[in-house]
Amino acid sequence: SESLMEVALGELDSKKAVQNGMTTHKADMTFASLPYRLMPEFQVPLYQEIKERDADFYEALEKAGFQLDWGDDNSGLFMKYLRRGSGYYMDVGSSQLIVDGKIKLAHGQVTEVTEAGVTLEDGTALSADLIVYATGYGSMNGWSAELIGQDVADKVGKCWGIGSETTKDPGPWVGEQRNMWKPTQQEALWFHGGNLHQSRHYSIYLSLQLKARMEGIPISVYGVPQTYHLT
Length: 231
What we know:
By secondary structure, the protein is mainly α.
């Protein structure tokens, strides 16, 4: 995470950036101005530098059984985030515990919870004093189906992703986040989310669209998204 902040985000989001005159508004506008089609080209060399800088660290993680990759096109964490919103992990200390053998890893789906622990799909039995279910995270259209109805979720289609035809981000190319911060196929249903930058920056445009509708002010936006990839 330290290398990520320094190499990938240092110019926009750091004490050094502030000292050089960077402001929150300028950082948001700079980040938002880069087209998603071009972004992988900028990300690949950044993550190559991180990979080389922390080569021993990643080698030790893999040796401990941690399965890692750098994205379908080696563009790293942020493109995974934009394309699929999953498949990445930002280290805040646990990785070193894995390297040191203080956290053990096992791979595979859990098929059974037993009195003594869990059983994996390959038959491996793992004993456990405590089982923590990390299953609360879901897709926005998945939550739409649960909270509103499957018919509405299907009407809206997939939320998030840009149609890059990479893992878990099927085409066609959309070029911006699907169904985010703009009208959807379901009248009066809007989606807002993302990281701190996106939530801060795009909430402005979302709120202006809502305010205009409340005040009866005509407003033109980049069309209602087509429906892709039902839940």
